[in-house]
């Protein structure tokens, strides 16, 4: 999604959660400083060949979802691109699936993301106001290709194609990279796996935003966005699908 279209939506998110933009700018500057020389320059042309024209399976970490059953997809060439959100990297690796791209703000099992990176996954590290210490701790640990992202105007080395949480940001990225179709596996905005009440309430609000943003992506894009259910069925997202319910 073009930044000009995305920016007002993110302004509404920041207002809802009270995120100060000056902290976003500090985080972005921190990430720029930490990115290795090989990771600088325009990110999208480097990522696009990994996804363009392919089916993109975007993997979330909904409770109980497990790894995507790629064997259920009909044989296709090229094989699907697997774009995972944060902690789903561990789930995929444990199932023998090396992600194509990992999208993370470094608040999950980062060791698994470092492992995936060493095995060929490109890691898209997102900078935001709350994860500056994590950036300082982890960016230098990635042995492979790393791409930066942030919430402001795209610039050399840092992309912004839309999205708020790791999961919906992964879907927005797959769309921007030219996926033929996007299948969402392990996305569930209704089930919140947080034991502490305040954290559970915050996560529920974030998931509600993520669900809304995925619907908006489906409406705005020519790329089909579908929810891949555990029974193997597919459900179209967007206003056309809602009108038939």
Account of the protein in words:
The chain has nine helices and nine strands. The chain has 245 residues and is α/β, with parallel strands linked by helices. It has a single domain (3-242), classed as sialyltransferase cstii, chain A (Alpha-Beta Complex). It has a nine-stranded mixed sheet, sandwiched between helices. α5 links the parallel β3 and β4 (122-126). α7 packs parallel to α8. The longest helix has 24 residues, at 197-220. The mean pLDDT is 92.
Give descriptors for this structure:
245 residues; alpha/beta; sialyltransferase cstii, chain A; 9-stranded mixed beta sheet; 9 helices; 39% helix; globular
How would you characterize the largest beta sheet?
Answer: 9 strands, mixed
Low-confidence stretches: none
- What is the rounded Rg? 17 Å
**CATH fold-level name:** sialyltransferase cstii, chain A
CATH class: Alpha Beta
How many extended strands?
9
Oligomer: single chain
What spatial form do the alpha-carbon principal axes imply?
globular
Percent helix, as a range, is 25-40%
**Separation of the first and last Cα atoms:** 27 Å
Proportion in β-strands: 15-25%
Mean pLDDT: 92
Spatial strand order of the main sheet: 6-5-4-3-2-1-7-8-9
List the secondary-structure elements in sequence, H or E: HHHEEHEHEHEEHEHEEH
The structure class reads: alpha/beta
Reported CATH architecture: Alpha-Beta Complex
Number of domains: 1
